[in-house]
Design goal:
Elements (H helix, E strand, L loop, with lengths): L2 E6 L4 H5 L3 H9 L2 E6 L2 H7 L10 H18 L15 H13 L4 H13 L8 H10 L11 H18 L6 E4 L4 E3 L4 H8 L4
Parallel strand pairs: 1-2
Antiparallel strand pairs: 1-3, 3-4
Helix pairs in contact: 2-9, 5-6, 5-8, 6-7
């Protein structure tokens, strides 16, 4: 049974635009997924990247074209300038980590709900009430937002180290247990083909 380590940030627009395609691909191939939220700004700093606000104007201008294009292509609503971005990703990441440990709900739906809250609904996903609502909607106990903060912090930091060791430098980043790595929601088709033995 193949396994996918999914490195992502809860404030990544490209992870949002992946929608539920990773989960569909995993189901198709009988693959399991470990969700590994990490600090994307720290990842950029550690791997030669630059935070969006510090990028060259040409890159900023291209991003402003590319994100709405990709959203339209995916048929997903999208706000290029959400009210609460960037925000502290740690609380929502800790919730994902706690939910994965607890089980009983839909992790993909939780991640997508958090990112949709940021990129569509203009909500601050650093706020407890927003996180708890996303947990509930995905079938998890909302009190997970209040528990396991220490463990969440430790795993969150470990995810960053694991991601760097696995070759990650952006998000979303998918690493199969074969060692094959795929960067970006626009490479999900390649991941699917890899799991099919075509790539």
């Amino acid at each position: 049974m193949p396994h996918i380590d999914y490195y992502f940030s809860t404030i990544s627009p490209y992870a949002y635009l992946a929608g539920n395609r990773l989960e569909e691909i995993a189901a198709k191939h009988g693959a399991t997924i470990t969700y590994k939220p990490l600090d994307i700004m720290a990842l950029f700093a550690r791997t030669g990247g630059v935070a969006p606000k510090d990028r060259h104007p040409n890159r900023i201008a291209y991003r402003a074209q590319e994100l709405p294009r990709q959203a339209k292509k995916a048929g997903m609503p999208f706000n290029l300038q959400p009210a609460h971005w960037p925000t502290n990703m740690a609380p929502s990441s800790y919730a994902v980590i706690a939910a994965q440990k607890a089980g009983g709900g839909d992790l993909g739906k939780l991640c997508q709900g958090l990112m949709r809250a940021c990129w569509v609904e203009d909500k601050d996903i650093a706020q407890d009430d927003v996180i708890k609502a996303c947990l509930s909607e995905a079938g998890f106990d909302p009190s997970l937002a209040d528990s396991g903060l220490l463990v969440g912090a430790e795993i969150y930091e470990k995810n960053l180290e694991d991601g760097i060791a696995a070759g990650a430098f952006g998000a979303p980043f998918y690493v199969v247990d074969t060692g094959a790595a795929f960067w970006g929601q626009d490479r999900l088709e390649d991941l699917d083909m890899h799991l099919s033995g075509e790539l």
